[in-house]
């Protein structure tokens, strides 16, 4: 027994030593918002009080647009993911994009409530605060989930819907980015509140691109630095624990508004058959698949994807 106890004690010490080495090697403490603003909140960024938070958003384009385009990013992304679309649209349309609670420079929700119902309440408050009575609402991945559930809750305020590799059905991924897997592991996720290898972020971003060669060092910088925003890592784990993805899927058939569905043919996180399911469930919807793109087609190839959006927006 004493020999076994010595062996177990030795293993425990070795594990603790390895954990210590990992923390020291990849030490990455939270960064305050003030430190991140200089690079990632340049004009036209602004911070607006919504639902008890200082929400990071960009509101660009003609102020007299009767139906602004509101864009929602996916898990661990930020409003910057829509840069390409925004440049292509702001000459003619008002474009509003924001960092959802728990992500980007908005950071964690004060009540730590990351249920879909609370995100819908947040979106209602955001539209009210910005004076948007009616809009075109679009979203990617988790942002797409928030978008279509908001459209169900506010049918008189959402004119059209754009779903980009949207979540909503029970998830059956072919491949999950390692960063998402880590965030869902009890104990390990707590460790990454203090340590975060940049290589882990790089691997995760490359995983969601159809062509990983398009992932630039600046893109990795953006995802990595914003992930370090104080409170974001804890919020990610909390959102995964509160997520009940798929529960509302039967209600997708209730959507009765013009809907454009865009999908990356190489999406391994939410595979293309999910796009087909949305098309089948939303009467009159249109599905466009980009065979060579991944989970974030709007970011990977903004020019091609926004061209489909423009056709949809101006179709009579």
Summarize the topology.
Layout: H1 2-25, H2 33-40, E1 46-50, E2 53-60, E3 69-72, H3 83-89, E4 95-98, H4 116-129, E5 135-140, H5 142-153, E6 158-164, H6 178-183, H7 188-191, H8 198-207, H9 217-227, H10 232-242, E7 259-264, H11 273-281, E8 286-290, H12 297-300, H13 302-313
Parallel strand pairs: 3-4, 3-5, 5-6, 6-7, 7-8
Antiparallel strand pairs: 1-2, 2-4
Helix pairs in contact: 3-13, 4-5, 8-9
**Secondary-structure element series:** HHEEEHEHEHEHHHHHEHEHH
**Distance N terminus to C terminus?**
80 Å
User: Low-confidence stretches at least 5 residues in length (pLDDT < 50)?
Assistant: 8-26
Task: Please state the second-level CATH architecture of the largest domain.
Answer: 3-Layer(aba) Sandwich
Determine the mean pLDDT.
90
Can you walk me through this structure?
The protein is of the alpha/beta class. It folds into 2 domains: 1-28; 33-313, Alpha/Beta hydrolase fold, catalytic domain (Rossmann fold, 3-Layer(aba) Sandwich), CATH 3.40.50.1820. 42% of the residues lie in helices and 14% in strands. The chain contains 13 helices and 8 strands. The protein has helices at residues 2-25, 33-40, 83-89, 116-129, 142-153, 178-183, 188-191, 198-207, 217-227, 232-242, 273-281, 297-300, 302-313, and strands at 46-50, 53-60, 69-72, 95-98, 135-140, 158-164, 259-264, 286-290. It has an 8-stranded mixed beta sheet with strand order 1-2-4-3-5-6-7-8, with helices on both faces. Helix 3 packs across helix 13, helix 4 (116-129) packs across helix 5 and helix 8 (198-207) packs across helix 9. Residues 8-26 have low confidence and may be disordered.
